[in-house]
Amino acid sequence: KAGVTQTPRYLIKTRGQQVTLSCSPISGHRSVSWYQQTPGQGLQFLFEYFSETQRNKGNFPGRFSGRQFSNSRSEMNVSTLELGDSALYLCASSLVPSNEKLFFGSGTQLSVL
Amino acid sequence: DQQVKQNSPSLSVQEGRISILNCDYTNSMFDYFLWYKKYPAEGPTFLISISSIKDKNEDGRFTVFLNKSAKHLSLHIVPSQPGDSAVYFCAASARNTGNQFYFGTGTSLTVIP
User: Which of A50, A107, B23, B89 is the most exposed place for a label (fewest CB within 10 A)?
Assistant: First the structure.
């Protein structure tokens, strides 16, 4: 069974641009969540999607948005990029929303110059 | 506001000895706790979990202890092996919050052969 797949693996953008990251969950998993990892901050919850609906949202500005498609694939978008948005963005999936274990992808490393 | 804290950024242990990683939390609503292991350039992988109704959970060389009154959990690895060298994150969640986990900032474990 394939794991969680995130594309692209690396991205370099400049301030003010926007970016879209993609995540394909494990087959059969319908819940997808996104996390931001920065040095010294650990992993911070961005949002969670289930059945194409956002169920939960972390404490991030509105420049961060996401969506989920009918095949459970998810995208997240960051508009008007800032230097502080440089981070590893991790996608995780589970069968359904639950507070049990998540399966993570390898992440997209975003660098904002 | 860091609700889950790992106060030791790094830990070095000799091969064959015990590794003890610690984690503290502040939110008394957390009822499920997990440990993840992360190698460079990979996403976190689930290691072990514990529900708040238990105070200990064991899986092979890994044991997690939960002290609810102290809001503290620890991960014991016995015996430690060089392949255990990685960054370890603890995470916590509350019932009915789906995949919204709160992560610590991680402890980098180095097992010296």
Answer: A50
